[in-house]
Design brief:
24% of the residues lie in helices and 38% in strands. The chain is an alpha+beta fold and 148 residues long. The protein has one domain: Nucleoside Triphosphate Pyrophosphohydrolase. A hairpin with a 7-residue loop joins β2 and β3. It is globular. The two termini are 20 Å apart.
Length: 148
Amino acid sequence: MPVIVGEVIEKDGKYLLVQEARKCRGKWNLPAGHLDIGETLLDAAKREAREESGLETELTGICQIGNRKMEDQVFVTVIFTAKETGGEAVADGDEIMDVKWFSYDEILKLKENDEIRTPDLLVGAINNAKSGAIAPLELINIYAAVPR
């Protein structure tokens, strides 16, 4: 069951996007990826942002929880709002071709030109962040392991 975590990172009215180098090559996306076994949602989101963009981030809220309706698997996304706290925005060259800050209007142009990997997810998360539809991080609970 894929659980995807990602971040909407805003700075000076622009949003950080990463350009995919592998699957969906050339498409722009939020810094995002799979939750690994043994990770919390919070730790995974920060790791993915660091791996894909080179930036250290601080999570500030939750702007989108979603799922894709599929017949053969479950697909869940949790997208956080975040602010940059360090590092340098740079592509790793392996999974990510480019890292760039875009204005909201530039993102809408990318969507119009079919240059975004998952437009409804990406633009929806940014719209929620822009409008202040952000839930507090305290809604995330980390449960203790249950003995089998």
